[in-house]
Design goal:
heterotrimer; A alpha/beta; B mainly alpha; C alpha/beta; A: alpha/beta; Beta Polymerase, domain 2; two-stranded parallel sheet; elongated; C: alpha/beta; Rossmann fold; 4-stranded parallel beta sheet; 5 helices; 11% strand; binds iron/sulfur cluster
């Protein structure tokens, strides 16, 4: 129902949809992501007013490599939907969703910090969990798990 | 959010025609619970702008879990919200079970409800207790620590640890309830907890000092709270009755009779009231759950997910091999992705899990309830006094473990 | 603690007595600074709570200023973002100072062996007493305090005096 509506409204932008495990999921193109999200929020049939979560996923070895995943929730309809966008390794850039939900601000910063995904137009895209001066993005699959960058104390 | 405030915009000229003062609070500050930090821009005592900073407890939960098997992740989930670890265990196990398509046993569902509600109670106790300590009312903390110790005793009996429980397993639990455990739970729920709640209630709820100190401190409207992604008691205090236990009933919450308290102004006082009432409602749920607790096994009967029995492992080569493979390679979970949310003490605790069919997760993202709450702090306190920041921070209950992961 | 008046060897004797008297006083009035970052911090609260009641050992006056504290109780995971803060807190404390490292994380990194967690605070500050466990019970904290009292009483060298360990 959600997915049908989304498809009808953005036929060219929705790449694929599925409802595995009962979670409605749509893979969309990145170009009109802000429009799509705003539509999901404002459409009277959908009303996804909560941006519950945003995260990146690194599918190392696949092309496109990165994925940005939005989880939305509608208070009125008590429904959830997952929106995914694929980004290429050489150009991991997507428009920011902060104008749609102010609460998504830090999630985007986290995705930048952990995966190096750039949110174009974000008001304050800085590291959030790691310290300034940390090199690389730790949750990328090619970042070794125990590669430490000590701020103090002996080098490892 | 973090954009600088234009102090001339709302006619808020600095009092003494002075420059706004910048101060740093934390990370090692008693009221910031040792891991949060703020950069505050003050005019006298009024907060003009506030930039929160965190990450001082970032422990790489996601990276660690990507290198673990499905079962090994359970202990890591304890350390997310270490004030109510059992609820994290339940949330995680439910997410993986959704991916495997497991329907857990009736008894297990009830047990999970009971432990979740016990955790909710002690979580709220810590929140209110420490919040009041920050405001200078130490007694409540002592009053709430006694029942907490009692509950810890119950939890220790259940899983051998007071704090880091690691109780749930994929498809069930570590062990069934000990003999007579439910009676002891009832004894604590009837004999100890209500008395302590009543004590604190008598000390605070009609206490003029408390009311005047907290009313109007850090208010938020329902609309803003939704836009900022608030969930849990903080959202309900703003008047939105969203509670996943009612709205997306999981486990067996739809079989119990309980109410969802809501506030009006969304200020510190309302958050306190909502938490107090939720504790009482949790007691109601526990009573009903224990009354209805069915017998039968706690684990599902499926050798793909449940360890073979210890006695068998010692004498049967097949069981031994099974056990070995189980531990070394982990449970086999089908490929796919799920998002599963539960109502934790602070709000929606979500797990987004991606599996590629191996013995361990490919990716686990936790949606911690604190994350948007902490993000909303500047919104709550801008224009208020710096002392109110302390009251507000305690009342939204930021747990650094799940905030930073 | 009687002060004797014999002539022989009086000065040396009086000095030791004074020292042991100070040690005796110090022993029962340890002011802890709890650097509680994570789950272990909850057990610290438990130790100061009604049930375990740290005040029985004279160490209940928690100071949140390092200048006024004798014992630094590091409870919880320390990561590389936090490590400079911990070092600074330690440097701000006045002599004599003791350090308790509570829990697997503070002692060795615990089961977090990854890019962000400091693998034991003894990499950056000297530690007098380690408490094993994840988390240790409040009894463990009490035991550590008693051990610090023993160190004070016997005048055993503090960790800082033999630090860094080669
Ligand atoms: S030792 Fe265990 S309980 Fe203590 S901080 Fe580390 S993970 Fe938490």
């Amino acid at each position: 129902m959600v997915l049908d509506r989304l498809r009808a409204r953005f036929p060219a932008d929705v790449v694929s949809v599925h409802s595995d495990f009962g979670d409605d999921t749509a893979l969309v193109r990145r170009e009109r992501i802000v429009e799509i999200l705003a539509f999901l929020r404002d459409d009277p049939e959908l009303l996804f007013d909560f941006a519950m979560d945003l995260t990146g996923v690194d599918y190392l070895g696949e092309e496109p490599r990165f994925e940005v995943v939005y989880h939305l929730f509608s208070l009125e309809k008590k429904r959830r939907v997952r929106i995914k966008v694929r980004l290429h390794e050489g150009d991991p850039v997507i428009d920011t969703a902060v104008p749609v939900w102010p609460g998504i601000d830090w999630y985007e910063r986290e995705a930048w910090d952990m995966y190096g995904i750039v949110f174009r137009g974000h008001p304050n895209l800085k590291r959030i969990l790691m310290f300034e001066g940390f090199e690389g993005h730790p949750l990328r699959k090619d970042y070794p798990k125990a590669k430490r960058q000590p701020t103090i104390g002996p080098e490892e | 959010m973090a954009e600088p405030v234009d102090i001339t915009a709302k006619g808020e000229t600095p009092d003494l025609q002075a420059e706004p003062m910048l101060i740093n609070i934390g990370p090692s500050h008693p009221a910031t619970h040792a891991t949060l930090r703020f950069h505050a821009k003050l005019d006298g005592e009024t907060i003009l702008d506030l930039v929160p900073e965190f990450g001082y407890l970032h422990r790489g939960f996601e990276k660690e879990s990507e290198a673990s098997t499905w079962t090994q992740v359970v202990p890591y989930t304890d350390r997310l919200n270490y004030v109510s670890p059992l609820m994290n265990n339940v949330g995680y196990a439910m997410a993986v079970e959704k991916l495997c398509g497991i329907e857990i046993t009736e008894r297990c569902k009830y047990v999970r409800v009971i432990v979740s509600e016990l955790s909710r109670i002690i979580d709220h106790m810590v929140c209110i207790g420490t919040n009041m300590v920050d405001l200078g009312a130490l007694t409540n903390f002592w009053y709430f620590w006694k029942p907490r110790e009692e509950v810890y005793k119950l939890i220790e009996e259940l899983c051998g640890q007071r704090l880091t429980t690691a109780y749930t397993r994929i498809g069930g639990a570590m062990a069934d309830l000990p003999e007579g455990w439910t009676d002891r739970v009832l004894a604590v729920c009837r004999g100890v907890i209500p008395g302590c709640i009543a004590d604190v209630n008598a000390l605070l709820t009609k206490n003029r000092i408390f009311i005047e100190r907290t009313m109007g401190a850090g208010p938020i409207t329902a609309k803003d709270a939704i836009a900022l992604g608030f969930t849990g008691p903080c959202l309900r205090a703003a008047g939105v009755p969203l509670d996943l236990r009612k709205d997306e009933p999981y486990l067996v919450y739809d079989r119990f009779d309980f109410d969802v308290p809501v506030g009006e102004a969304g200020d510190t006082c309302d958050r306190y009231m909502v938490r107090m009432e939720e504790m009482r409602q949790s007691l109601r749920i526990i009573e009903q759950a224990i009354a209805k607790l069915p017998g039968g096994p706690i684990n599902i009967d499926d050798p793909r997910f449940i360890l073979p029995e210890k006695a068998l492992v010692y004498e049967n080569i097949e069981a031994l091999m099974n056990h070995f493979k189980f531990i070394m390679e982990g449970v086999k979970v089908p490929a796919g992705e799920v998002y599963s949310a539960t109502e934790a003490a602070n709000g929606e605790l979500g797990f987004y899990i991606v599996s590629r069919g191996g013995g361990g997760p490919y990716k686990i993202k936790v949606r911690p309830p604190c994350f948007p709450l902490f993000q909303g702090i500047p919104h709550l306190v801008k224009g208020q006094m710096i002392a109110d920041l302390i009251a507000v921070l305690g009342s939204v209950n930021i747990i650094a473990g799940e905030l930073d992961r | 603690m009687a002060v004797r008046h014999e002539k022989d060897g009086a000065s040396g004797y009086a000095l030791t007595t004074l020292e042991s008297m100070i040690a005796w006083g110090r022993k029962y009035s340890l002011y802890p600074f709890t650097f509680a970052t994570a789950c272990c911090g909850i057990e610290v609260m438990g130790a100061f709570g009604t049930h375990y009641d740290m005040s029985r050992f004279g160490a209940e006056v928690v100071r949140f200023s390092p200048r006024q504290a004798d014992v630094l109780l590091v409870a919880g995971t320390i990561n590389y973002k936090m490590a400079p803060v911990l070092k600074r807190i330690y440097d701000q404390m006045l002599e004599p100072r003791w350090v308790i490292s509570m829990g697997a994380c503070a002692c060795s990194g615990g089961f977090y062996n990854n890019y962000t967690v400091l693998q034991g605070i003894d990499k950056i500050i000297p530690v007098d007493v380690y408490i094993p466990g994840c988390p240790p019970n409040p009894e463990g904290i009490i035991d550590a305090v008693v051990r610090i009292q023993k160190i004070i009483e016997t005048g055993a060298p503090r960790a800082a005096e033999r630090w860094p360990i080669k």
